[in-house]
Amino acid sequence: MEIDRAIMESSDQRLRTKYKNATYVIERAFALYQISETNLTSSSVPTFSIQSINRGKFELVAFSFNGGKDSTVLLHLLRAGYYLHKEKSDQSCKNLLDGTLKCPIRTIYFESPSAFPEINSFTYETATTYELQLDIICLDFKSGLEALINEKPTKAIFLGTRIGDPNAVGQEQFSPSSPGWPPFMRVNPILDWSYRDVWAFLLTCKVQYCSLYDKGYTSIGSIYDTVPNSLLCSGHSPDSNENFKPAYLLADGRLERAGRAKKITSKCESASELSNGLNNVDPHLASSLTASIIGVGDEILFGTIGDKITAALCKKLHSIGWMVVHVAVVRNDIDCVAEEIERRKSTDDMVLLFGGVGPLHSDVSVAGVAKAFGVRVAPDEEFEEHLRHLIGNHCIGDRNEMALLPEGITELLHHERLCVPMIKCQNVIVLSATNVSELELQWDCLIDLPNTPFVTMAPYISKHLSTIFSDVEAAESISNLRFEFPDIHINCHRKSRVGPLIISFIGKDQTRVESAATKLSKKFCPGSFSEVNSE
Ligand SMILES: Cc1cc2nc3c(=O)[nH]c(=O)nc-3n(C[C@H](O)[C@H](O)[C@H](O)COP(=O)(O)O)c2cc1C
Ligand SMILES: Nc1ncnc2c1ncn2[C@@H]1O[C@H](COP(=O)(O)OP(=O)(O)OP(=O)(O)O)[C@@H](O)[C@H]1O
Ligand SMILES: [Mg+2]
């Protein structure tokens, strides 16, 4: 089989490993889901939305093909995987080695009026060449998949999703469809392939790909949001059109989507502008900057450990005049992290995230940040270099997954006292501290940076009084005081149900804080209140 032979004869060891892993996933998926090859029954007549071409076999797996480079790679891997799968079960398959192996897999293409004509024609020609059983679906993805699954049982769908794609966040090689989507298994055999791997495969196998890639397109969406990648522009031709080099010459695969329009919402943009411009804010005007803190950790939610970092961070933020308005602890789950960040990044000036940073399966914070901003994670070579100095070459696989950072929005915050820079994505800062002393170091560095994201304002000053009066006895006087001192935060907490009661006065003006405390003391007989330190 020509694909298998081309890869096995290639000297590219990395490509061979990628190929073996991908075809292994494909073979397992065939074994899991392709139960039999039964003829279609009359009940499987296509609905108005699905036009069927050349359908012959009935399987529980389908291939989502759109003529793009990633799905073209997948097509040939599926052909190779089918051959390897057949080879094991049927020795007569050996004679397929030299012919063009057809893979009779059900193939779905979501056709759209905004697709490039070159993509459409390449898709149809390829389907004919390889005798794919093509279903053309003219609905949106979700409704189309619903219609498809209603019409024919479909347990699994192969996709050419790769780890850097915006939609890949949180996915694995086998990922169930998302909540709210019809139920099927998404099978992503090339999830861990890089841009370079994709081109190494297509060129090594000498297979055809869509002509747009030779005209400087590096990732293809719709005609409305896709242009050639300007990084491949090689000047102007005599007829004043720009000339572009082919996609495989793009040196930095992280910039694969540079020709695609960004999907970041205006909310994010304004948050970004704010966070980038904070250093210019007048400290007096900026007296109401707010922060929220998000801890990521099942260990906190299970009560395995107590969270001391949040309390320490609140104190640090108050010491530079910032108000902490929201604290949350969420599970080590990408969607939980993303949802929380999504909410906070648009309401607060800065979001601080800790926990869930590292190489473990539970370390999902950075992926959660990417998902919240709707961007993909992509290998960051600079960050990888720092990690290599720290941990040597002990990373898992070909790449250090810790070096996958949200693309296009990540700023690395360097400080000479830190072995690895901190990660800032617009107004979200990811702290890798795992205890209070590490947090203190990172905080000191953050504040010390010439381009610190934190403007230092008048600090919050606090005074804490303890009283032997019960909450019932003190309640009315404290409540009245709030109207007289609206600029002072008056918080109460009890050491126990029977006392003592601690009243805290917190504000930016020392005199006002003192006056509020004195006023309350005077409402009761002398000696009823004593000053205490905060915890
Ligand atoms: C076969 C197939 C299955 C999909 N399954 C899901 C899914 O389970 N969850 C989801 O959020 N999106 C799903 N999508 C949508 C994709 O994640 C993504 O939105 C789509 O590839 C379009 O990308 P674009 O928005 O960048 O154009 C699916 C798409 C296809 C073609
Ligand atoms: N219109 C579509 N019809 C069928 N499958 C699709 C469609 N759009 C996306 N897919 C599936 O989603 C995968 C990821 O899409 P994506 O656009 O990232 O990759 P691609 O189109 O193969 O390559 P490129 O990144 O160069 O555009 C595809 O490989 C394909 O499996
Ligand atoms: Mg595409």
UniProtKB/TrEMBL annotation:
Domain MoaB/Mog, chain residue ranges per copy: 292-425
GO biological process: FAD biosynthetic process
Descriptive protein name: FAD synthase
Organism: Iris pallida (Sweet iris)
Keywords: ATP-binding, FAD, Flavoprotein, FMN, Nucleotide-binding, Nucleotidyltransferase, Transferase
Metabolic or biological pathway: Cofactor biosynthesis; FAD biosynthesis; FAD from FMN: step 1/1
E.C. number(s) listed in UniProt: 2.7.7.2
GO molecular function, one term: ATP binding
InterPro entries: MoaB/Mog-like_dom_sf, MoaB/Mog_dom, PAPS_reduct_dom, Rossmann-like_a/b/a_fold
Keyword S-adenosyl-L-methionine carried by entry: no
Catalytic activity of the protein: FMN + ATP + H(+) = FAD + diphosphate
